[in-house]
Amino acid sequence: MMQNMNSLLLVFFFFVTIFTNFTFSTNVSHDGRAITINGQRRIILSGSIHYPRSTTEMWPDLIKKSKEGGLDAIETYVFWNAHEPLRRQYDFSGNLDLIRFIKTVQDEGLYAVLRIGPYVCAEWNFGGFPMWLDNLPGVELRTVNDVYMSEMKNFTTLIVDMMKEEKLFASQGGPIILAQIENEYGNVIASYGDAGKAYVNWCASMANSLDIGVPWIMCQENDAPESVINTCNGWYCDQFTPNNPNSPKMWTENWTGWFKNWGGKDPSRTAEDLAYSVARFYQLGGTFQNYYMYHGGTNFGRTAGGPYITTSYDYDAPLNEYGSLNQPKYGHLKQLHDVLHSIENVLTYGNISSMDFGNSVSATIYSTNDQKSCFFGNANSSLDATINYQGVSYDIPAWSVSILPDCKNVLYNTAKVNTQTSKMIKVANEAENEPIVLKWSWMQENLDENALLGKGQVSASHLLDQKVANDVSDYLWYMTRLDLDENDPIWSKNMSIRVNATGQIVHAYINGEYLGSEWATYGIYNYVFEKEIKLKPGKNQIALLSATLGYQNYGARFEMTETGLPGPIQIIGKNGDETIIKDLSSHKWTYKVGLEGLDNKLFDVNTNYSSKWLSDNLPVNKMMTWYKTTFKAPLGEDPVVVDLIGLGKGFAWVNGNNLGRYWPSFLADVDGCSAEPCDYRGSYDNNKCVSNCGQPSQRWYHVPRSFMNKDVNEFVLFEEFGGNPSLVSFQTVRPGSVCGNAYENKDMEISCQGKTISDVKFASFGDVQGICGSFEKGTCEAKNDAISIVKNACVGKESCSIQASASVFGATNCEASVSKRLAVEVVC
Ligand code: GAL
Fold first, then answer.
1. Do the beta carbons of residue 170 and residue 142 sit within 8 Å?
2. Which atom of ligand 1 is nearest to the CA of 315?
3. 139, 214, 378, 583: most buried by Cβ count inside 10 Å?
4. Positive or negative CA dihedral for 647, 650, 654, 655?
């Protein structure tokens, strides 16, 4: 008996030990059809959220909304230069806490896709490469080069090991189902010759040697070795075929809109077209699709790349820069995701057949023994189509896909938006007394040490590329002294300075006096600053302040693009017809990184310089001026922005947190916007459907709630160009008017996202014309009073739902062929 008891106990302890050490691992594999998770083929809908482009406090809400939006996975790049700003000195704090981000994804029950790169592009400063890497002797980036490969391997291994340590790969029971190495190398491989191909192979074998237990992907890389999956990036990827029959058809970047540059207009991509691209991809055998971006966020501090990428990285993504729903995009996609998920099994296991109806109209039928699901696609950009399928006729609007989970009833059509549109508005800061007048103090940046005295840190007898300064500041002074004798052949009444600069900003000072400034525009990397100067006999101090706007992040050998003032820098003298050039390029140049106010941390609440701020005679339109004020945090939970209208260009800090570069004086081009509603039909590109012509490219700047205290907050501006802070104000962003739209027999759902519906401005069920904000009754409508019906159902509530049908709104006098909809506009 005792013997038996002992052996039972032994068995018991044996199982306890096994189970406590056991983590349920997830098996991720793939075949030509799909990614398979734990033996089940899956379709995966994923969305990009870059952790440093929001704050840790925002992550849970962003990820929750992503899940509610029907996503299965969250994708992020890993940002090398943020994590290893100095060689072997790492930073994973605050919004760089990658582990915490992945765990937040896991807590929400979503998968993660980790695009390590570590070259990432992403409109991120220098594409994610740390500047010290580029300054290592003998280094050549993104090719077969020992110095580079050793550093790339070091960082990639570090990230993989961190993930393994926390058991974050699916193979260890974690959420990461896929990892990426390199980024779009196929776009540039040709310019590296044979070395490019060798480098791709090395990337793949290095990645595989890290043994992560989930597949590695390489995007836009047709030469990808078989051990990794090559994937597609673009606005459309339905025509993509991977280079290996065992690789599923995967789309790592479906661009939900586009990024913005200083001087650029606001990009937007319609919900209809985005949904069309996704439905089309799944119609034609797609399996994994990732929205780039699902939440774009903000380029805080100096993280924006380009050069010339704005601080906002909103991207017209389904979640806007501040994390609110961008409607109707978010809702229209959510409905699509639900339909796709409902037919996952037949999509990934079914037989596929197709029918061509001509004129770019086609049907794809997926069928198993139990289920048959259909996609009817019309890729014609102008002609609507009517097809007959198994004796039933179906209308398919131009540039749309209909999904029929049972091949009989159209459950979803990409061109028919049955979800609300929200127009966001900015509201004054209710915590302040009206009218809001911020009380400013100010301080002048001390320029004399450099502009007048030419004091620096190092000297060289040539012009340096600004990258050698290791990118610790936007600013680098180039200073030299010019001894001029009146007998010098160049001495003349008409002398000028000519500076060959590269795509960023230059401010010139002669003998301590400001001479002028110049800058280029997005995509232009070289320009010439030339201005007449007055020199004196004897010593003249020439000081040029170069300011960068983020380092280039894309292109073959983009690191070779010179930055700063590579020269030549010349003095030009004109005596009658004769022109004499004095080249200063190999003069002795003295260099100083940064500005005094930045070195002294004037933006820091704990700075020692508080006594030096002046409160009288507030200067306006004065270059190189620091401004400081305090403000009360806006009440409530709505996202907060600061309106910087009236200012030039510079940096802004709230309680020492750098909001990013600001430049409201840079206006977007006046051409290219249209008053007409955007036509979703036809291929999208970033020049289509733009808005905000002639307005500041970016006027409002995100102030995350976590940057503020509940009571008084400090706000500091460094104004480089000169501006007037008197109109600056803190505001909140929330839905103003919200429109509901539903086609016949669908439910119209409307929500003020936490606010109450206060009034109904428009309601009609019939052939309503126009878009949200300018709805008009059509030629026919239902007989009951639609406004009262909607008021009864919605006013005073946060959200409401009404069926768009004759049983609710009464019979209509519309012809049978008219496609009827319920359109509603409410006030939040
Ligand atoms: C892709 C790149 C992304 C991003 C995108 C444009 O080519 O892989 O990182 O730069 O373009 O937003």
1. no
2. 12
3. 378
4. negative
Q: Please choose from 554, 558, 685, 686 the residue to mutate so as to test ligand 1's pocket, defined by most ligand atoms within 8 A of CB.
A: 554
- The per-residue pLDDT for 2 is 47
Kindly report, residue by residue over 365-424, the tens digit of the pLDDT: 999 999 999 999 999 999 999 999 999 999 999 999 999 999 999 999 999 999 999 999
Q: Does residue 76 line the site of ligand 1, with CB under 6 A?
A: no
Among protein residues, the one whose CA lies closest to atom 5 of ligand 1:
122
Q: Quick one: pLDDT at residue 17?
A: 47
For residue 735, whether the previous peptide bond is cis, meaning omega lies within 30 degrees of 0, is no
Whether 252 is in the pocket of ligand 1, judged by its Cβ within 6 Å, is no
Residues 271, 257 contacting (CB under 8 angstroms):
no
Which pLDDT value is given to residue 4?
57
Task: Give the gyration radius of the chain's Cα atoms.
Answer: 30
Question: What sign does the CA torsion over 270, 741, 332, 795 have?
Answer: positive
Distance 240 CA to ligand 1 centre (A): 17
pLDDT in tens, 361-374: 999 999 999 999 99
DSSP letter at 802 equals E
The whole-chain average pLDDT of the chain stands at 95
Tokens of 170: 């699916």
- Residue 156, H or E segment: helix 146-165
Residue 579 CA, distance from chain mean position: 49
Between the CA of residue 666 and those of 265, 680, 794, what are the distances in Å?
11, 29, 42
Query: What is residue 7's predicted lDDT score, i.e. its pLDDT?
Result: 59
List pLDDT tens digits, range 441-456. Answer: 999 999 999 999 999 9
365: which 2 tokens?
């039928």
Q: Residues 137-159: pLDDT tens digits? A: 999 999 999 999 999 999 999 99
Nearest CA to ligand 1 atom 10: 122
- Cα–Cα separations (whole angstroms), residue 11 to 340, 668, 750: 47, 74, 59
In sequence order, the β-bridge partners of residue 505 are 519, 547
> Three-class SS string for 168-226?
CEHHHCCCEEEEEECCCHHHCHHHHHHHHHHHHHHHHHHHHHCCCCCCEEEECCCCCCC
Asked about 75 being catalytic, the answer comes back as no
* Residues near 287 by beta carbon (within 8 Å), at least 6 away in sequence: 33, 34, 35, 41, 42, 43, 44, 248, 249, 250, 347, 348
- pLDDT the model gives residue 501: 92
Rounded CA separation 661/650 (Å) = 6
Say if residue 243's pLDDT is above 70.
Answer: yes
Q: Is 122 in the pocket of ligand 1 (CB under 6 A)?
A: yes
- Cα–Cα distance between 128 and 142 in angstroms, integer? 12
Nearest to 91 by CA among 102, 79, 103: 79
Q: Strand pairing of 625-632 and 441-444?
A: antiparallel
- The residue ranking higher by pLDDT, 493 or 206, is 206
Measure 77 CA to ligand 1 centroid, in angstroms: 11
Per-residue pLDDT tens over the stretch 595-632? 999 999 999 988 777 778 999 999 999 999 999 999 99
Quote the CA–CA distance of 686 and 640 in Å, as a whole number.
28
Q: Is the CB of 184 under 6 A from ligand 1?
A: yes
CA-closest candidate to residue 505, choices 469, 473, 545, 533: 545
794 vs 757: CA distance, rounded Å: 6
| Cβ of 121 below 6 Å from ligand 1 | yes
The residue type of 186 is G
Q: Is 265 helix (H, G, I), strand (E, B) or coil?
A: coil
- Please tell me which residue, 54 or 521, carries the higher pLDDT value: 54
Tell me, yes or no, if the pTM score tops 0.85: yes
272 catalytic? Reply is: no
Gap between the Cα atoms of 133 and 83, Å rounded: 13
Check if 123 has its Cβ closer than 6 Å to any atom of ligand 1.
yes
With CA atoms as reference, report the closest residue to 105 among 38, 170, 40, 182.
Answer: 170
Ligand 1 mean position to 122 CA, how many Å? Answer: 5
